[in-house]
What does this fold into?
Amino acid sequence: MAELISLKEYSIDSKIALLKELGYSVNGRNIICENGSVVKDRYIDTPVKIENMLILPGSTIILDDNEISIISYFEEFGDL
Amino acid sequence: MSNSDSTSKDPIESVAKGTVKGFLEWSKSEIISIVKRYKNRDVAFVGNKEEIKKIMDLRKTPEFSNFKDYLYNREHLVLCQLGMQLRKCESNSTDAANLRKKIVSKFGFNGLYVALFIQNGLLGYVSNFLSKLYSKIDMKDKLNDYFSDIEQIIYFVNNKTDPIKSSRRIINRIDSNSPIIYIISSYSSGNNKICKTLSNKIFREIKDIYSASNYNENKRNIYIFNRKDCY
It folds into this structure.
């Protein structure tokens, strides 16, 4: 099982640095892809906010922290 | 799973962590290292670790294994897990209402009713009944068909249910579809009274064709009508 790291415990600067290392930038509370588009949760189709994001394995999947997205991720990609 | 920011943390806890704001920090080298581990799928960045573990634990339960035996549609499996989540949070009416809203927003009312069907523990009963009539493959098809339009087989009573109007609608539905099973379900004492009135009204009209049984448990009231020629 993958080690779970709680982003809630980390500063906003650390989260921005993490996103930058993964190839993303931040505009206000939104996360921006390399192509300039706002990152949306693939399951609920809403922009993911930096304070409520999850970054899960599988081609860098950034999701909103909610039950539907987490369960949908597990159903698509399997458990962590 | 909450939207609360960690700035609301206990200040003593923050000091204990050795930071002014109560947040942990990664150095540049730590970030490079952790991203490398992430790309190897060794770490995942989550919100509340315990909430993630609880969801993963639900997926390991025998109940969920049964769902996977019966259902092959990914959306239905997601709804089953949301139904299990609803059952877990039903003692907290705010959490339950929030989750129900999210389910309706994503999956519509059919999705909500599927989740409520699971919350009420009805899949086991229905699949047991179907297993007496169908092969496993046909039973799966039947269940997936039901889940695509769950109102074929169930009505959920709420505090706005009018027993007269609803009984007419349900009887029409039963007359036109002749389902082998039909369920009326309610939760909470007020709704349970409406459920009883409604179910009695319906049963008076269909008793030549259907038998009835009633279960009460954990504030739930469930009436099940089985078509007599399917025994």
The CA atoms of residues 85 and 119 of chain B lie 8 Å apart. Residues 153-231 of chain B form a domain with the Translation Initiation Factor IF3 fold (CATH 3.30.110.10). The two ends of chain B are 46 Å apart (CA to CA). The interface with chain A takes residues 1, 3, 5-6, 19, 21, 23-26, 28, 31-32, 34-35, 37-38, 41-49, 51-53, 55-56, 59, 74, 77-78, 81-82, 85, 99, 102-103, 105-106 of chain B (CB under 8 Å).
